[in-house]
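Sat 14:20. Reprocessing the chain from the morning session after the first attempt stalled halfway. Input below, unchanged.
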Amino acid sequence: MRISVVMPTYNRAAIIERAVRSVLAQTHADLEMIVVDDGSTDDTAAVLAAFADPRLIHLRYSPNRGGNYARNRGIERATGEIVSFIDSDDEFLPHKLAVIARTFAERPEADGVVDSFVIHKPGAHGIQVRNRDNPVIDDPATFRTAVFGRRMYKATPAISVRRRVLTEIGMFDETLRRRQDMDMLLRLCRAHRCISIADRLWIKHWTPGAISTKRDTFVEAAIAICERHPDYLSEPSYRTGLERDIGRHFVRLARAGEWSVFGRDMARLRQWGRLGVSPWRLVLRRLLQPRRKRLVPAR
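Finished this time. Tokens:
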């Protein structure tokens, strides 16, 4: 079973070698890696040219149009039955694709698989680690509730999908700046069977400046998901994750002293007018919840 691994990149010449090596070193050798250079102006091309591996395909586009545009061009170029994703600052564990291939072979009715992973984050005392363990889910209704309810870690590199199905659902929404993984999964699981597994198969290296760390794009992304998937608001069991996320967002802004973004986002939610609950109430609810355990040093 051939697997196509798609990686978008933009001016990451200093770090992409780790990600590329981790894919090409997989124990499952029937693969192709498609690196989509989204308008880089650094030495990305030279770094990739140093790999003498015919499985590595380098596509170049200009100007920069965003990660979703790049992923879609990679999907269009892919020839594998399965498409997996990696970001340029992350790393596959050696058995990642072997487990994915085996899972799809054993579960021919599944069109999408979400795996588990590990976060590595630099700290004052070295690299610290947190496991992102997903529950084992194969029921369609439970899967959809887990995505909406934020009870599943669904970063893009955790997702593997049959290529024909990605084409059927329209691939990634190129107008979204954030939460493209959630939007794609929700469209996918409407008409196709998706499952999640507990196997930790890759490492997410926390990088300052990554899209997921930018607090000033959060509210617009949340609104975009709600407008594309209205049941996020209308179904009580789905709202839990949305309300938790919004409360956490404002608490983080307050702790970071980002009061201008705090005020702007509060005003944006009031202007939108569809949340149905005061964001201040969600902030208070979040503050009254126990703090999560801190990252622990890696050993």
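The two ends are 35 Å apart (CA to CA).
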